[in-house]
Amino acid sequence: MSNDKKIAVITGAGSGIGRASSIQLAEDGYTVVLVDYNTESGEETLRLIKEQGGEGIFVQADVSKSEDVQNYVNEAVQAYGRIDFFFNNAGIVQKFSMFDDIEEAEFDRIMSVNVKGCFLGMKYVLKVMKDQGSGHILNTASTAGIRSEHSAGAYSASKHAVVGLTKSAALEYVKKGIRVNAICPGGVNTALTQSVAASFQQGGYVPEELSNMRMGRPAESNEISGVVSFMASPASSYMTGSIVTVDGGLTL
Ligand code: NAD
User: Is 62 in the pocket of ligand 1 (CB under 6 A)?
Assistant: First the structure.
């Protein structure tokens, strides 16, 4: 099927930042390819988009599995012939604990989704964008990717790696018409942070991101998707290798 509209692929599209961004990008005129591990929530995002007259498909995938990543990239190309914008967003949060209590299996789980998942998505989408001679990848890092955050050693390391992957690819592909950027949200009111708050309460520690929001509140997902919308627009055309904080002043 050919399509004159621009094509966006969004991972983690079933919830929080990914869902809000998928809906926003569809409103902006993108045809969307929604990717999530959770079929029910991914299909629900697609339903919400179609209800508003948007277009797209959903592909179930575990972003940490190479064959699943190749499959969602192939499905996008088979359906629409190209990928203009890739919002590489799926991620998970660790069970919060002091560094010496982080279990090896937990470390591996975080690295596998947040780092390998980000890497694999970039790798296979970059092949498509290289053939096109154009494209834009926006990775979701975190304020935990540019500074330390308490009781989150594995998560913080994984998001520093996302920043590293972003900068490396931005440098390598700048002459090939491909831009690569990252956003660093601070605290956003999503299922992910709700699970974080519960695990902190169990451990008796209230992190700065929850207790000392400089705006007195976390962001809502649509305050992140607004920035994603800007990044996906021609207005961001001179940005590559940028690590964009959207944190209500948290890292000041
Ligand atoms: P969320 O839990 O609301 O949504 C994440 C989505 O990703 C879910 O739909 C989930 O099913 C999907 N997902 C998880 N693992 C997957 C996998 N292996 N394969 C495919 N899909 C998978 O979380 P969110 O808050 O919207 O987080 C989105 C991104 O933003 C993550 O990368 C997260 O680290 C980052 N982030 C969130 C915050 C925050 O405060 N919420 C802050 C900074 C960064």
Answer: yes
**Ligand 1 pocket check for 187: Cβ under 6 Å:** yes
Q: Which residues contact 147 (CB under 8 A, 6 or more apart)?
A: 251
Atom 7, ligand 1: which residue's CA is nearest?
12
Buried b (16+ CB within 10 A) or exposed e, 115-131: bbbbbbbbebbbebbee
pTM above 0.90, yes or no: yes
Q: What is the pLDDT of residues 62-102, one digit of tens each?
A: 999 999 999 999 999 999 999 999 999 999 998 888 999 99
Cα four-point dihedral sign 194, 49, 21, 133:
positive
Active site residues per annotation? 155
Residue 118, amino acid = C
Query: Can you state the angle between helices 39-51 and 16-27, rounded to 10 degrees?
Result: 30
* Nearest atom, ligand 1, residue 117 CA: 18
CA of 172 to the centre of ligand 1 (A): 27
227: left (phi over 0), alpha (psi -120 to 50) or beta: alpha
ipTM of the complex: 0.99
Q: Are 178 and 130 in contact (CB under 8 A)?
A: yes
